[in-house]
Write a structure and sequence with these properties.
homodimer; about 325 residues; alpha/beta; Quinone Oxidoreductase, Chain A, domain 1; Rossmann fold; 2 domains; 11 helices; oxidoreductase activity, acting on NAD(P)H (chains A, B); Putative NAD(P)H quinone oxidoreductase, PIG3 family (chains A, B)
Chain lengths: ~325, ~325
């Protein structure tokens, strides 16, 4: 089969197409014929990871495709089933193995390209907002980096699953326009105004129940001001730096704030399996009914992977970059 | 009936004994003949609270006694039942009303003085360690201020309910000795050594799963260092200041730390009721079997309340100060 690996760790020029044997599924695994793969920042980082040694892996952590062999006890994942899900490397190949518990059945209403655009960003947003943020029906949520992959997924779910009141921040009018279209109610261009003041005004000083914080350091004080009593503040990125000068713990106590740091990638296989299963059950019906939509920036052919990495590294995309692997 | 109130907000000299009508229980409430009352810091703060207006309340938030009238639908709380629990003021009187859901039935094995020493500190420690800290069987917990009321309660429960490995810090050898006697395994005199280094050594760099933090600011860096991956760090006091310079959010994310600020007193009636009910069911059997013991510093007669407030304000006590109200 064809696949994309690397000659050695490095820039985009190290990406190389290889011809290898199909992988063989172990007990509990599926063999999936890959139709489409999502391109993720973690792939570009793996490509450059000088700690890797030969044999270098097939890149890619997110695919959609068709089950061709089922070595698990879950008979509903029979050969021919359309699935998507996270894999531990191997996504940029024509076939990949996937633990059965990671497989999310893909409704007929979605194309394979759309399926490959779901797992990474929607699972991350779901985990952050529900497992960690414990977002409840009609609560108020502040979503930073509203134009990002996880941001656009979070806005849609907060709107469709929870009828939340959504405050979204971004630095470009077109990203805020997109956020509004996806369900955000209050839009703040952080280059033009203080989100803390806006939230205080709109909520009459009460604040928000959940914050999805990709920014960290530079937003610390305004995030703290924006928290309601019993707020859950989930820290999933430090785009604004990871150091904070002067933290007031008195406010953290008085408001009974819960601050949770998280990263999805290093979590255990078991955690990802449970997350995938719950997501399949709770969220996938919304995709079937077209209430949720994967946001796709572009679909590129298999041969043009290096160009896909360039787009990712130049931050050109406002949704997922998808590689078509086979028809 | 006799009770202690105040002439006006102020120092200990404003405490005054008054003669008033017995309170009348509303629907859902019990009338309790008070046998003993716990003295709490919140009482001394209420005494000084210049925001209070007349009529000034009867002080006291924690009692034990006997039910004399039951206006609730819970027939097991019939007249004659021995109970203890939290009340909204009124604890320093011969009779007090208590919502039925706050009542914790007192086993015959415990005296009324012991019963009055349970609610505030054990409920706070239970809520902090289990509801917020989610302490699980055989995990590792770091308990600061090991000699405090909440500290001594937490050590006993972590040991008896969870077989936890307990790291305790205090500044006096006799407090550490008491902590050891109550079940702590690793004792650190913070005046003599770094608890972070000690924990790193004992746990081989892994750290602890839960921190009960009464200290805040001055311990921030060492607490962060002491956290294991997925640690729950519960902030319930800022004895060491509430300002932190330089916080590293990268570590909070990488270790997936959950930081929760909390205060029990401002929580809702419903929250306290649920907490009391779960506590009665899960924890009280351990008191009956003498596996848990209230730590009492002194029992003083009703007439000597001002002296009890003096002890509290001079931080003389190493356990609860209890006022005997009637025989």
């Amino acid at each position: 089969m064809r696949a994309w690996s690397i000659e050695k760790p490095g820039g985009r020029q190290v990406l190389q197409q290889i011809e290898v044997e199909k992988p063989v599924p172990k007990q509990g695994e599926l063999l999936v014929e890959v139709k489409a793969a999502g391109i993720n920042r973690t792939d570009t980082l793996t490509r450059q990871n000088t700690a890797l040694t030969e044999p270098y892996p097939i890149l890619g952590v997110e695919v959609s495709g068709v089950v061709v062999e089922n070595q698990s006890t879950d008979s509903k994942l029979h050969a021919g089933t359309r699935v998507c899900g996270l894999v531990n490397h191997g996504g940029y190949g024509e076939y990949v193995t996937m633990p059965d518990e990671r497989a999310i059945v893909l409704p007929d209403e979605l194309t394979f390209e759309e399926g490959a655009a779901i797992p990474e960003v929607f699972l991350t947003a779901y985990q952050t907002m529900y497992w960690l943020g414990e977002l409840k029906e009609k609560e108020k949520i502040l979503i930073h980096a509203a134009g990002s992959g996880v941001g656009t997924a979070a806005i849609q779910m907060a709107s469709q699953l929870s009828q939340a009141t959504i405050f979204a921040t971004a630095g470009h009018p077109e990203k805020l326009e997109k956020a509004k279209e996806l369900g955000a109610h209050v839009l703040v261009n952080y280059k033009e105004e203080s989100f803390a003041e806006r939230i205080s005004g709109v909520t009459e000083g009460i604040g928000v129940d959940v914050i999805l914080d990709f920014v960290g350091g530079s937003y610390w004080k305004m995030n703290l001001e924006s928290c309601a009593v019993d707020a859950r503040w989930i820290l999933i990125g430090t785009l604004g730096g990871s150091e904070v000068d002067k933290v007031s713990l008195g406010d953290v106590m008085k408001k009974r704030i819960v601050l949770k740091g998280t990263l999805l990638t290093p979590r255990s296989d078991d955690y990802k399996a449970q997350l995938s299963q719950e997501f399949a059950e709770v969220v996938m019906p919304f995709f079937k009914e077209k209430k949720l939509k994967p946001v796709i920036h572009v679909v590129i052919p298999f041969e043009e992977l290096p160009e896909a990495h360039r787009m990712m590294e130049d931050n050109e995309n406002t949704g997922k970059i998808i590689m078509k692997v086979s028809d």
